[in-house]
Amino acid sequence: MANINQNYLKLPGSYLFSEIARRVNVYKGDNPQADIISLGIGDVTRPLPPAVIAAMKKAVDEMSIPEKFRGYGPEQGYDFLREKLVENDFKSRGVDISIDEVFVSDGAKNDTANFQELFSLENIIAVSDPVYPVYIDSNVMAGRTGELNVKGQYDNVVYLPCTEANGMKPTLPSTKVDMIYLCFPNNPTGVTLSKEELKEWVDYARANKAIILFDAAYEAFIQEPDVPHSIFEIEGAREVAVEFRSLSKTAGFTGTRCAYTIVPKDVMLYDKLGEAHSLNSLWVRRQSTKFNGVSYPVQAAAAAVFSEEGKKQVKELISYYMENARIIRVALDKLGLKVFGGVNSPYVWLKTPENMKSWDYFDKLMKEANVIGTPGAGFGASGEGYFRLTGFGTRENTNKAIERIKAKM
Ligand code: MLT
């Protein structure tokens, strides 16, 4: 008899964004005429930049020429792309990352979910609350957590509440943890940490031999000059951090798929005898066994993001989405709602009017305004009473959504 991985039984029925899609589809089924605007899942709406399209087409053509055709590529990504990533994302900020510390993949979601495999199941994870659900769910599936309790939290996980009282910024854990998930600019709250604040985490990890799994998927949206783009801008982070990056939101790759993870060679995991093992080597071992790399045309397209025209076009894309975020933030603020994010992040996190429950507000906006957002409670217990809107819509839909929200206040 084939038995189930019991850990899957601890999970709620469906993944947050699948649940939202399900509810929207039911509503659409009952109201086929409804003109729904989605500012829910962070999915981009602008086409890929022309420089990216040109590079992808050229690469596809090469695949038709016997001398240029490529079969399996290196699992860690082609050097032509990894060199560009090192140069543009890290060297330009004075951060020393070598090419064999860069792992190209098909998504930061997968990488953040898969990375936990390298750690002992006895390790304790710490997550911000609210949190991007993938960090938690992947650890539940692996068996690193206890059961879901009445508070809607898993036993054996350290939750770090992000509330108005702490400015939506997690505070250092008071009990010992081994794996710390941080995401800045934060999904869902849009809040960022200063270098000094991030340094506290790096110092904590160094003192406690913990490892920080740092999700920087939204770093390209940072507008203010002093906000760190990479955890590796912080002294000592090379010993204790891994960083996840993505072109999904930065360059419109949500459907094209290309991301990259930085695993410095200085980070170590310890075995039962206390002997150190290189995390970088373990990730090479994992990826070369379970992953066959990103397709050549997609990597060629990704490299074009860092060409002169590509950089200019991506900057325009980001400005477009950040203007949407500004429009949302300013409008909600004028309505008297408490708003976070939207300054260095495409996400705007708002306190629901009249202390409505997140899912009630979701239903209200869907039914009365035909606007879809993401209920804060879907990101964790501390997200209850909050709601997330994204700047990733079209300008026209963003403006329309705001008018409709205003009308239904
Ligand atoms: C989100 O809306 O939080 C993201 O789009 C989800 C993701 O990137 O997987």
Structure explained in plain terms:
The protein has 409 residues and is an alpha/beta fold. It folds into two domains: 6-47 and 309-407, Aspartate Aminotransferase, domain 1 (Alpha-Beta Complex); 54-307, Aspartate Aminotransferase, domain 2. 36% of the residues lie in helices and 14% in strands. The protein has helices at residues 16-30, 50-62, 79-90, 108-115, 133-142, 195-208, 237-240, 279-290, 296-304, 308-334, 358-369, 395-407, and strands at 37-38, 102-105, 125-129, 157-161, 179-183, 211-215, 241-246, 259-262, 268-270, 276-278, 339-341, 347-351, 371-372, 374-375, 386-390. Helix 5 (133-142) links the parallel strand 3 and strand 4. Helix 2 runs antiparallel to helix 9 (296-304) and helix 3 (79-90) runs parallel beside helix 9 (296-304). The longest helix is centred in the C-terminal third of the chain and has 27 residues, at 308-334. It is globular and about 55 Å long. The model has no long low-confidence stretch (mean pLDDT 97).
Please specify the SSE layout and strand pairing.
Layout (H helix, E strand, L loop, with lengths): L15 H15 L6 E2 L11 H13 L16 H12 L11 E4 L2 H8 L9 E5 L3 H10 L14 E5 L17 E5 L11 H14 L2 E5 L21 H4 E6 L12 E4 L5 E3 L5 E3 H12 L5 H9 L3 H27 L4 E3 L5 E5 L6 H12 L1 E2 L1 E2 L10 E5 L4 H13 L2
Parallel strand pairs: 1-13, 3-4, 3-5, 5-6, 6-7
Antiparallel strand pairs: 2-8, 7-8, 9-10, 11-12, 12-15, 14-15
Helix pairs in contact: 2-9, 3-9, 4-5, 10-12
The structure holds D-malate.
